[in-house]
Backbone:
């Protein structure tokens, strides 16, 4: 692992937890971060099965990696090497499509897969609790701000809210039963499968979902059934939703205007962010994230790469190329300074925004 990435991890620890320190540090980073540099390609033993999900631990020291055969490995970000294998995978298992650390603990990791299995790992002891959502293919998973609740969503279009202490279902936001002619309204559940779910980073109860029905739903987990607001347009096919302050970022699997910025309060489009698509290939994004208040990163199958963009100036800050392999997932850590990108054939790359 490069010296600069180690320094970024150490810096993120020193910043502490105060909002004041975080805001000041981000302002300084925004001025200093001008380019995206690829620092490391991390080969892993399960790469043959492709990587479907990534998630950094809250302190940025670990990166959880989910593979197509159900395997989960942990990368030590300080050494750049493999820390542990939580599950080696099996030919009967399907892809780990979503991973999420508890926001207050780097010891607790929740994984969910296309076979409907949810696994809760104690990273240090490697003890695991597993159970399944019968008949569902889970595509998305996230914790709320304080970690008391996590939510899942996928093929069956229902959104399940779990108590993270007991792993019991607290509530199910049920999707409309289209076959039995349930009324469809703008604020009812999704009409097609869900691929992304993201809790608001500053609000305990708010989260967003998106999928194949060309809409983003904004939910309040205290509400029994209907979404609070709806954004029409984004065609989400992967972890292509993020939120920062009052801005929502979406990455759609469409040829043009795939990367978009929306106002959280009004649910209106603010901007189409230029994304450098290849001629005759289109953009076709699967994943998108905020790095900081000015910079976003996104990738998919159109360019076979992830690109960082300063959306205020439309300047391309750099690219992580997977050499003609689709980007299926990405994540950021250390206040946006460190980026992980992976996809078909594994191809885990670590980059630095500096």
Residues:
């Amino acid at each position: 692992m490069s010296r600069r990435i180690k320094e970024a991890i150490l810096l993120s620890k020193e910043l502490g937890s105060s909002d004041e320190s975080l805001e000041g540090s981000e302002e300084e980073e925004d001025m200093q971060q001008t380019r995206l540099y690829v620092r490391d390609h991390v080969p892993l033993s399960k790469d043959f099965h492709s990587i479907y999900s990534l998630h950094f631990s809250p302190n940025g020291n670990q990166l959880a990696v989910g593979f197509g055969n159900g395997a989960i490995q942990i990368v030590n970000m300080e050494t750049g090497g493999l820390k542990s294998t939580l599950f080696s995978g099996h030919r009967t298992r399907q892809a780990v499509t979503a991973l999420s650390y508890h926001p207050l603990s780097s010891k607790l990791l929740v994984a969910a897969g296309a076979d409907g299995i949810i696994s809760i790992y104690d990273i240090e002891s490697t003890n695991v609790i597993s159970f399944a959502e019968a008949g569902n293919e889970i595509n998305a998973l996230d914790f709320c701000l304080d970690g008391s609740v996590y939510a899942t969503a996928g093929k069956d279009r229902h959104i399940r809210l779990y108590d993270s202490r007991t792993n019991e279902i607290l509530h199910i936001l049920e999707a409309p039963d289209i076959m039995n002619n349930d009324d469809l309204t703008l604020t009812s559940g999704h009409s097609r499968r869900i691929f992304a779910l993201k809790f608001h980073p500053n609000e305990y109860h708010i989260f967003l979902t998106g999928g194949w029905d060309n809409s983003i739903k904004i939910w309040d987990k205290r509400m029994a059934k209907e979404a609070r607001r709806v954004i029409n347009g984004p065609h989400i096919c992967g972890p292509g939703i993020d939120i920062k302050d009052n801005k929502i970022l979406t990455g759609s699997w469409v040829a043009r205007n795939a990367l978009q910025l929306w106002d959280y309060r009004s649910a209106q489009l603010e901007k189409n962010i230029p994304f450098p698509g290849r001629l005759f290939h289109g953009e076709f994004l699967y994943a998108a994230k905020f790095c900081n208040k000015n910079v976003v990163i996104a990738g998919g199958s159109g360019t076979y790469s992830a690109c960082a963009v300063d959306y205020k100036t439309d300047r391309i800050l750099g690219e992580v190329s997977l050499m003609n392999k689709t980007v299926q997932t990405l994540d950021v850590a250390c206040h946006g300074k460190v980026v992980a990108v992976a996809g078909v054939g594994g191809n885990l790359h670590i980059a630095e925004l500096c």
